[in-house]
Amino acid sequence: MGEVRLGGALLSHYDPADLGAYVGYLPQEPTLISGSIAENIARMSLRPDSDKIVAAAMKAQAHELILNLPDGYETRVEDNTVGLSGGQRQRIALARALYGDPVLLVLDEPNSALDLEGTEALNAAIRAMKAEGRSVIVMTHRPMAISECDRLMVIEAGCVKADGPRDEIVRSMMKNAGDIQRTLARTGEIT
């Protein structure tokens, strides 16, 4: 059994109320909360920092799209609807995950609703986090989502099947896929 540490300390040593300041999370299907775009990015903080809100939006490359909304950062979101596309919601949720400069960013299928521009913005945010010495965990089934990853861990049925540098793991998986395809072709199971 392993242990999970953040900044060298066991997670259990952190007050759960404080842990959110250190971890940014982007779920597969982000939900915006009733309130303004700024409040959503600031995680509904009682004392939001407008400079940090804009900085997070800029890191997520969501600043321009927010400025183009009817009331910019003060545009109200009620019950997750304001005419935002899935990709726009995901970019705003990425800004929320980046708010406050977390040391760890956890992304769950982060590009599921993103177009090419949104995917490029996501990759830029990941590169920026890595350049700042921060950690990023990406959970995905999509090959495009691993382009900025240094290391891959393949988990199947709750067990680690592969772990190592991205390029080595991808090569190994491609070789295995090729071997399987050749075997199936020889047996006539695929043509």
From TrEMBL:
<dbReference type="InterPro" id="IPR027417">
    <property type="entry name" value="P-loop_NTPase"/>
</dbReference>
<dbReference type="GO" id="GO:0016887">
    <property type="term" value="F:ATP hydrolysis activity"/>
</dbReference>
<dbReference type="GO" id="GO:0034040">
    <property type="term" value="F:ATPase-coupled lipid transmembrane transporter activity"/>
</dbReference>
<keyword id="KW-0067">ATP-binding</keyword>
<dbReference type="InterPro" id="IPR017871">
    <property type="entry name" value="ABC_transporter-like_CS"/>
</dbReference>
<dbReference type="Pfam" id="PF00005">
    <property type="entry name" value="ABC_tran"/>
</dbReference>
<protein>
    <submittedName>
        <fullName>ABC transporter family protein</fullName>
    </submittedName>
</protein>
<dbReference type="InterPro" id="IPR039421">
    <property type="entry name" value="Type_1_exporter"/>
</dbReference>
<dbReference type="InterPro" id="IPR003593">
    <property type="entry name" value="AAA+_ATPase"/>
</dbReference>
<keyword id="KW-0547">Nucleotide-binding</keyword>
<feature type="domain" description="ABC transporter">
    <location>
        <begin position="1"/>
        <end position="182"/>
    </location>
</feature>
<dbReference type="InterPro" id="IPR003439">
    <property type="entry name" value="ABC_transporter-like_ATP-bd"/>
</dbReference>
<dbReference type="GO" id="GO:0005524">
    <property type="term" value="F:ATP binding"/>
</dbReference>
